[in-house]
Amino acid sequence: MIPNITRGAKMTGLVSYLAGPGRSNEHENPHVVAGHEAVLFAAPAGELSHSDAIELAHEIDTARVVFGTEVSYTNRRKMNAAIDDGTPRSVALADATSDRNVWHCSLSLNPDEGELSDATWGAIAADFMREMGFDDPYSPRAAARWVAIRHGKTTAGGDHIHIAASAVREDGTKVDTFNDFKRAQAACGTLEHAHGLVVLTSRENDRGTRGVKPAEAGVAARSGAAETARVRLERTVRACATASKTEGEFVRRLRAEKVLVRPRYDTGTAGKVVGYSVATTPTAAERAAGGKPVWFGGGRLAKDLTLPRLRDEWETTGTAQQDAAAEWSAARRGAAVTITTGRERTQLDAGLIERAAEDIDKWNTYLSSIPASDTAQWARAAGRTAGVFAAWSARTEPTPGPLAKAATALSRSAQIPAHQRITPDPDRRHAGGAALIVMQTALTARGGATANALLLRQMMRTMEAVADAERAAGNARQAHALVRVRERELTTLHTQLVRTSAADRGAVALAPDAAPRAVTARDGGRPDGVSAEAWEAARLTGLGNTSGASHRDGPAHAPTASSGDVADRTDRGARGVGEDHER
Prior knowledge:
Elements: E1 2-8, H1 11-19, E2 31-35, H2 37-42, H3 50-60, H4 62-67, E3 72-74, H5 76-84, H6 89-96, E4 97-99, E5 102-108, H7 118-131, E6 144-150, E7 160-169, H8 180-194, H9 201-204, H10 214-223, H11 229-243, H12 247-256, E8 259-265, E9 273-280, H13 284-288, E10 296-297, H14 298-301, H15 307-311, H16 318-333, H17 353-367, H18 375-396, H19 402-413, H20 432-439, H21 448-472, H22 476-504, H23 532-542, H24 564-577
Antiparallel strand pairs: 1-5, 2-6, 3-4, 5-7, 6-7, 8-9, 9-10
Helix pairs in contact: 1-3, 5-6, 7-8, 11-12, 11-18, 11-20, 12-16, 17-20, 17-21, 18-19, 18-20, 18-21, 19-22, 21-22
Protein name: MobA/VirD2-like nuclease domain-containing protein
Domain MobA/VirD2-like nuclease: 95-197
Region (Disordered): 543-583
């Protein structure tokens, strides 16, 4: 069960909306299922009319009106952002402070959980408001008035209710709503067990992702965007972080992707960067309409994208730290990057995609050494793998596609409690080399489909390993989500790549299930002078032969020195990358 809390100033506006037709006539039979005793006394038994809604709102708002209690709320994030932009503190504080006497929370189920009865929803609402401290019969504090309204399913098809409550108690005192977001999550966890609902494992393990707010979804829908700015930024930041070797490179990559980025300095310590925020660059139309960037801190994007977590994966030499400080300063001032010859400026040869596949094959071997019980290392592995998919998506998908969906699914497995850190191990493997290659390679070159099919198959193996780890940890829902993306999205993409590869060579297309594991240098089956790409192409197009030779030994008619042009091209690309690009 998912809670979503908002605050407002007009109780009549909120209740009227909940009892009305909705923005798209999606509300059906709005009616009361629970509430404070005084509100229930005034509530009609059937469907709510507009006049009923106004009367209920006045009942809920009685204590605030009688006692004249003022409830204000300061949006600290908005205030700090304004101060960072140069607004005087007093002005920023006033602009970020508003009346918030209305407390609103929706409680939603996943569509696959079915529907609950009015009686069950009523019991859940009463228990929830007791857990949140609004109406606890066992507490000496006066209760605050509230009502729970049910009006059909969400746009996604999930059963849900809305709770409208006053932030003023019956004796005129204020309800303590401090930390109510976290308390609501804890309350939902308690109620899931108490009422036999599906238990959200990610909440139990404190591994949940940042949910998309309705307001963010609304902005995306009105602009025609396929996803919200936060989701797009998370994928971009993850891609840049995974492909980077140093912190300074990370900043430069973000700016190259047209992402606005600014550092957060430690209070009282000159020049020490302890965090960062990112925002999408407003379009010309948005700027003309007075629109301003909406900033998201790394931790608001995902728990594993905070600066301390990201630094665990980067070099921390003295030179790297000086480079990072200079790049953060340049980003804050809007100045040009300080280094124009970094790794991120190198255009890599398309032949290196097969190198990325070999890197991921080694990555998969490393993953097989991680114990199933080591959830922190598996979370790290999921995050790095998500970064490779995100980098690949950034270069090949104009709109979010299978690769983006895989990145999103894996990122959910990358979340661990904020207080838990992964012990750095200098000998552990990275997936950054593959992310670097897919982010900086021209993928339109001849033969690219074969190499990409090779890489995708290795990435699918990685996704399967993460799903197995989730299943072993008891996270069946997340394991199922990973398998679903792998089977529905990636398998289809792999089939397309194999068919394109076969068509390029005038061969019969084959389904991915018929293709064996990719041959890499460690298999020892590739003849000297033949690139892995050419060797795999021959294997893919030669599987129709019914010879007794094993797949591991390659096709009966393997490529010979005639494939040297591919090998030479790959070797030149590899030399251009150099050891500095190893992760």
